[in-house]
Amino acid sequence: MICVPLTEKTTEEMLAGAARAAKLGADLVEFRLDYLAAPDVAQLVKGKKVAAIFTCRPKREGGLFEGDESRRIGLLQQAMDLGAEYVDVELDSVAKIRRTGRARLIVSVHDFEGTPGDLWGVYRRISACRPDVVKIATTAKDIADNLAIFEVLRRADQPTIAIAMGERGVISRILAAKFGGFLTFAALEPEKTSAAGQVTVEELTGLYHYGEINGATEVFGVIAKPVAHSMSPLIHNAAFADCGMNRVYLPFLVDEVTEFVARFRGLPVKGFSVTIPHKERAMDSAEEVDEQTRRIGALNTLVERGGKLVGRNTDCSAAMGAMERALGGPGRVRGGAVSSLSGKRAAVIGARGTARAVAFGLVEAGARVRIYNRTTTRARTLAAELSSTFPDGPRCEWSALDELSGLSDADVIVNTTPVGMHPRVDESIVLADALRKGMLVFDAVYNPVETKLIREARERGALTVTGLEMFVAQAAEQFELFTGEKPPVEVMRSAVEARLGRAAK
Ligand code: NAP
Q: What's the pLDDT at 465?
């Protein structure tokens, strides 16, 4: 079940919020009486058209109620006497409530500091009060705290709500259904959360398809820090839903990748996407990597295959495929065929993860690559590494960023810096005068899809490849690795385009 907590300031607004929540797919709402200046319990019980929890959280448990304790208990008792479906009482106050009527009693404990080591002990203490529903809300300081929450849900022998609050606990809210949680909480709107880490009811239903998650749902996700703005959950969940797969894809906010992968594999998580800043360190988690990934030295995919965690880099093939298609080639060229990029003079701007994957692909394809970077030592190191990885290929050169004027000689320009990315959409790393007809210009930035660099390149008759092409292609390849099935590429592309289109408005 999905429960939407209502934090409006007046009784009327709360009732309107309850009606909206029900329309959006909430099974019940929570009236947070502590948010109301003048709570009218009778009007709420009478006026609501959806089942409700009545809660009046005191300051000491993270709520807003600062008044007299007997007044607070009186409001909850009134809700119970008037026949509310659920009343939530904190463990330390449960003795003050008389159980009457048909109302079911939720007994709750909140921890805003962290997740206690003995969470099962907390469960047992609540359970001893013989509530109808146990509720535990802790704070995830580390993503591994979610595992303790899932363990409580697995072991619980009565209806239980167990949630880890905070951004690191988002997955506990989405996976509550997988582990048999009684309900999960979701916000009516992004700015109306009643606890940190709450996703909106629209996200929970539209993006994560919460209603379809059950014990058999297979779990995937992206490992990143930060992760909140990643479009990977959007693109992969859209693909899973389109294919009618019982799979969900989550945002994992991870501080240390190897420990995280070791612990979450057993959840089990079947496949991970890996992004900033973990792509290189994640190589240590892979039990098997293909030759190309080993040589790139960074991966963006970890997938369970026959009991082994296999690492792959789909960034390189996605970028190369997109560029080769733009040049009229068949896409990614493998197995001895000559790439349409062979012999081209390619300027790669930037020298970190994305540059590494793209430059590797270009050198491997036989292009003559020059790396330009703001920090010259990084450009020099990457160029030297690529030259030694491909001793028989053309030497990889490097230059400082202020030598970009030499770009007009290039056949291919690749931007792998964030310059031009939202919100600084009026910037371009390349002067328009360097762009010319016949050149191939690839911008890894995909928000916005048409960057200033792409727009100016098109205006001057250059061929262009947008970051969206690469993003969709790397995700499509991951989907195939995750599921063994052909990806619904157009559905994936439309999902991202729709989000970017909305963001641009
Ligand atoms: P990153 O760590 O952000 O790499 C940044 C690179 O850009 C570094 O080489 C950095 O130079 C340079 N840079 C940053 N700000 C700059 C500035 N103001 N002026 C000049 N150079 C600057 O991470 P990344 O993973 O390589 O990602 C880079 C971009 O690619 C991001 O915009 C990301 O959104 C995009 N991307 C797209 C896809 C896709 O599928 N389309 C996939 C991955 C990444 P220093 O070395 O001097 O710091």
A: 97
Q: Residue of the nearest CA to atom 7 in ligand 1?
A: 417
Contact 412, 367 (CB under 8 A): yes
**Which contacts qualify for 229-235: CB closer than 8 Å, 24 or more apart?**
230/275, 231/471, 231/496, 231/499, 232/273, 232/275, 232/475, 233/207, 233/208, 234/207, 234/495, 234/496, 234/499, 235/471, 235/472, 235/475, 235/492, 235/495, 235/496
CATH topology for 2-216? TIM Barrel (3.20.20)
Number of Cβ atoms within 10 Å of the Cβ of 154: 12
Amino acid letter, residue 280 = E
Q: Would you state the CATH architecture of domain 237-313+472-504?
A: 3-Layer(aba) Sandwich (3.40)
| CA-473 nearest atom, ligand 1 | 40
State yes or no: is 135 an active-site residue: yes
Which residue puts its alpha carbon closest to atom 22 of ligand 1? 417
Which residues line ligand 1 at a C-beta cut-off of 6 Å? 276, 315, 350-355, 373-375, 378, 401, 416-419, 421, 444-446, 467, 470-471, 474
C-alpha–C-alpha distance, residues 248 and 229, integer Å: 18
Given the CA of residue 351, which atom of ligand 1 is nearest to it? 9
pLDDT > 70 fraction of the chain, expressed in percent and rounded? 97
CATH architecture of the domain with range 328-465: 3-Layer(aba) Sandwich (3.40)
Q: What is the pTM of this model?
A: 0.93
Q: Is the pLDDT of residue 114 over 80?
A: yes
Find the 377 Cα to ligand 1 centroid distance in Å.
Answer: 16
Strand partners, 32: 55
pLDDT in tens, 338-389: 788 999 999 999 998 899 999 999 999 999 999 999 999 999 999 999 999 9
Query: Where are the chain's structural domains?
Result: 2-216, 237-313+472-504, 328-465
Matching residue, tokens 């061929």: 463
Question: Which pLDDT score is estimated for 333?
Answer: 52
User: Mind listing the pLDDT tens digit for each residue in 201-236?
Assistant: 999 999 999 999 999 999 999 999 999 889 999 999
Split at pLDDT 50, 70, 90, the class of 406 is: confident
pLDDT at 119 over 70: yes
Per-residue pLDDT reduced to its tens digit, 264-296: 998 989 999 999 899 999 999 999 999 999 999
Substitution candidate for ligand 1 out of 300, 352, 426 with most atoms within 8 A of CB: 352
